Amino acid sequence: MHEMALCESLMAIIEQEATMGRFHQVHSVSLEVGLLAGVEPEALQFGFQAVTHGTVAEGAELRILPATAQALCVLCGLEETISRPMSLCPACHGPLHVSGGRGLRIKEMEVE
Amino acid sequence: MCGVCGCGDTKHGHDHGHGHEGEVGHRHDGGASGGGLREHGHLPRFAHAPGLSARRIVQVEQDLFAQNQAYADGNRRAFGERRVFSVNLMSSPGSGKTTLLVRTLKAMHDACPVIVIEGDQQTDRDARRIAATGVPVHQVNTGRGCHLDAHRVAHACDHLPIADGATLFIENVGNLVCPAGFDLGEARRVVVLSVTEGEDKPLKYPDMFRAADMLILNKVDLLPYVDFDIEACYAHAREVNPLVTMIAVSATRGDGMAQWLAWIGSERARWMRDGARATNPIGG
User: Fold this and answer.
1) ipTM above threshold 0.95
2) Which of A71, B57, B205, B233 could crosslink B176 through cysteines, CB 3.0-4.6 Å?
3) Hey, are the CB atoms on B144 and A4 less than 8 Å from each other?
4) What is the pTM of this model?
């Protein structure tokens, strides 16, 4: 359940923004989740509910925006968008260079 | 050690995630019923009615891993400057990390400075096993936390007598999932898998095995008694991580220990040659 720790980081950012942006209620949070980030959306939703209890974000909706990764085969040059972890090229079994898809980034919030 | 927050207390790190409780006081309805929120719910988006606070969109663009990454980068820099070669040991609970570590420390202790950070949810039982070898150790209890993070490691270092050129072993919390996502600033990552666990673990927990530089297959003295196919296990590991080094070890009987110690020595030398950088950074 490292999602709980990540939700605590998310809550710290929200609290910081609430102080700076002078809002008192968060209605929704949009979070970009890399498909290779090793994070379970369901566990994130559960953790988000737990950490937002009694805060400015209590009851807020967590909108999860999945982000894909790009894979490039070092041997045959195949380029593909991937949504699950892969190490070997599906065409030639050469090693894949994978970029992106690992981030966990808060994009925007609907607040008042 | 903690160059990012400059704090001198591990409890402070916990506060990063929970602080600003005073913010609750800003709520109009005291937060008790939530009824006030529903009253506002029918307002059109972006309304700017005088006297009423209006909903608006705030752009944030902040990375949730960024804080840990900043601490990890700080640790890596500090380890590099002092030539402290750090190894993050990860596995599921009960795979024999501590037994492997005790045997490793006994072999290394006389030859070079070694230090240990022990991560567990509760108790200092493992730290006491390590301390019995004479190696300086600091126990980190993560409480409900399921992994070590870079900030805790930074503060654990404050409690240890770290000699320049030392080798630091960080025994992570027993867990094949969460520690894979948290860079500690280590030079090398080692995953320990025991033959009592099943050869398909690399496929079931690919993030952990993909993040590792070395796979130690432990408890091979039990092979006659368990149904475990070593070659299948190695093939599964290579499937998720073609570059991983693999050795078979029995931490109780001593099989493979010479290979493991030689790997530590050669990787340390390689790390120094590469300018004290990690070869396989998380997220890289």
Assistant:
1) no
2) B205
3) yes
4) 0.80
